[in-house]
């Protein structure tokens, strides 16, 4: 069984491998439904309480987290889902109050 420290060192090694900071062009097609689902998965994963996040997610630098959020905001815009996400967020906020 891997210890947490060992797992973090392996993850850090992979992230610092040569070429990991190089830009990659990705042409893909994804359904709007999956864009929406991925948005919620990323949003939930990046806003969970710090104590409940998996160890590897805790170790991700803030700049990488912000870059992923920006990337996904662009995906939402391209899929035409930005307004829908905003309205769903507003509904969720109203439900909390």
TrEMBL record:
Organism expressing this protein natively: Flavobacterium crocinum
Organism phylogeny: Bacteria, Pseudomonadati, Bacteroidota, Flavobacteriia, Flavobacteriales
Superkingdom, natural source: Bacteria
Protein name (database record): Uncharacterized protein
């Amino acid at each position: 069984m891997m210890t947490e420290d060992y797992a973090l060192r392996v993850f850090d090694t992979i992230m610092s491998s040569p070429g990991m900071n190089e830009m990659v062009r990705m042409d893909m097609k994804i359904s709007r439904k999956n864009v929406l689902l991925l948005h919620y998965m990323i949003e939930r994963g990046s806003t969970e309480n710090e104590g409940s996040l998996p160890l590897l997610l805790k170790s991700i630098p803030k700049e990488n987290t912000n870059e992923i959020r920006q990337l996904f905001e662009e995906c939402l815009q391209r899929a035409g889902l930005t307004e829908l996400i905003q309205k769903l967020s507003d509904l969720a906020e109203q439900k909390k109050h």
